[in-house]
Amino acid sequence: MRRFSEEYCRVIGVLLLTFVIIILFSTPSMILAKSVTTIGAELSHGASGETFVRAKLDFGSNEHMRAFPRKIGNWRDKEYSAAARLAKVLHADVLLMRAYSNPRYYQPVFFLIVQSNNRSSFHPPIVCYPALGYKIEETGRVQIPVRNRSWVEEPLFTKPVNKTRIASSRMITAKKLIVTKESPRGDVTERRVVLYFYVKEKPLSNKITMVRVSALAPIQGSYNGTLNMTREFMGETIPCMFELQKEESPIFFTLFSSCSGKVAIVLILLLPILVIFYPSIHNGLLKSKLRNRKVPP
């Protein structure tokens, strides 16, 4: 029974030590953040080009979608009457669809946020557009510049003297589609630039959220003007939806930078070590006590 008690004590001590090490080498936001979300061009988790963010709105709430800003910089919106029909086509549970216009451009951009609770039945753009009669002319990836500095969050517990200057622009990876629609005679009657990315939460979640921006492009020739317009607009919408954390130092290095922090580290590590070696210390004390009893006065 004593042997079992000793082994049990060592196991608890090792588990405590492992837990303490994990905590010490974690960042404050990993422990305190309510939720961590990634955005990226691919639907699968862990794909290249993902960005860790915090969502500023609930994509599963129709109320949050209706409250989405109707004015973003110089862009003003207009809702679509076809939103309900599109929600049915996309198998969406929550959907926001608007057209935003800017005095600098002669045509609007079409903005879509869609969420479905059924990943298997959701239609991504590369499937949805051909189903609607479009032909995919080109696919690829683009970098979306986010120049709004207010969306970058300072690290938790960072001293003002240690805060670094935030870059004026960050890049988010999005998927690009160039799609066309033809007449029965084979003439191209419509051409669109489509940019989109996915919002990913828990790896095992069946929920899927997509953010898409599209605009009409010239039927022939370069579409670069339309591409730049959609990239600009998407970059302005991202700070309305997300906030991005800067890199943080692990708690260990934050504590180690001060004398009191070093003392705290020693005390925190000492507890599980004492638990691990408690049986040896206890047995040693017992043997010493027995030896002292055997010594004649």
Low-confidence stretches: 152-168
- Count of DSSP helices? 8
Residue share in β-strands: 25-35%
Radius of gyration: 29 Å
What does the largest sheet look like? Answer: 12 strands, mixed
Helicity, as a percent range: 25-40%
Structural class: alpha+beta
Strand elements, count: 12
N-to-C terminal Cα separation, in Å? 35 Å
The overall number of domains is 2
Arithmetic mean pLDDT: 78
Order of helices and strands: HHEEHEEHEEHEEEEEHEHH
Sum up the overall morphology in one term.
elongated
Question: How are the secondary structure elements laid out?
Answer:
Layout: H1 2-24, H2 28-32, E1 37-40, E2 51-55, H3 62-66, E3 71-72, E4 75-79, H4 83-90, E5 94-101, E6 109-116, H5 125-131, E7 135-146, E8 152-153, E9 170-182, E10 188-200, E11 208-216, H6 224-241, E12 242-245, H7 251-256, H8 259-294
3D structure, described in words:
There is one protein chain. Helices cover 36% and strands 29% of the residues. By secondary structure, the protein is of the alpha+beta class. It folds into 2 domains: 1-26 and 250-274, no CATH class; 34-245, no CATH class. Strands 1, 2, 3, 4, 5, 6, 7, 8, 9, 10, 11 and 12 form a 12-stranded mixed β-sheet that branches. A hairpin with a 7-residue loop joins strand 10 and strand 11. The longest helix is centred in the C-terminal third of the chain and has 36 residues, at 259-294. It is elongated and about 110 Å long.
